[in-house]
Amino acid sequence: MKRSHQKKKRINPYLGYGLLIVLVCIQYGKDSLYFNNGGGGKNWRIGAPLVNPVSAFPGRTLSELRQQALLLVNRDRKLNGLPPLREDPLIAHTAQKHADDMVNRNFYAHVNPDGQSPTDRYRANGGIGGIGENIVYQDRWPGVVLSYGLAERFQRSWMYSEGHRKNLLTPGYTKFGYGISIDRVTGKVYAVQNFQ
User: Fold this and answer.
1) How far is it, in rounded angstroms, from Cα 191 to Cα 134?
2) Where are the transmembrane segments (predicted)?
3) With b meaning 16 or more CB within 10 Å and e meaning fewer, what string describes 138-166?
4) Does the chain have fewer CB atoms within 10 Å around its N or its C terminus?
């Protein structure tokens, strides 16, 4: 009987430890990775995330982010018994201009440095009537990309803020616009939701 002198291949124990660490991070870190929105509050609900580990992080175009933002808003409106909103190009243009303006002039406010309110800006772009507005700002995050995960995170923050949630869940609104802008030097991100 011949003995085999082949060495048994051993799995590197560090590989196993590394895999275990990754699995633990995914399990316990999922809330910070946008995979859990909680259930909402006493008189309102928030929907399950529309992102997963594959879709959350890749960079997206403005058009893709606008579509995702509308899906997120309508997810939460539906869950709260409200009709869906539709994207309005002029409202979206107004939201995007405000997000870009906040980046370019380094401010964070509903009223811009020229004293224009959301409604003033909408009317200056040719709109009729007033609009509601939500804004959010994320400070200096190196390497940030505009992604579905970021849109989910912003939507969650608006839903857990009473004043912002009131805008999102106003029954009379039918139209929606979304803008998002990033300062490539500082990593600051500004996002705007406008409603009518």
Assistant:
1) 8
2) 12-29
3) beeeeebebbbbbbbbbbbebbeeeebbe
4) N
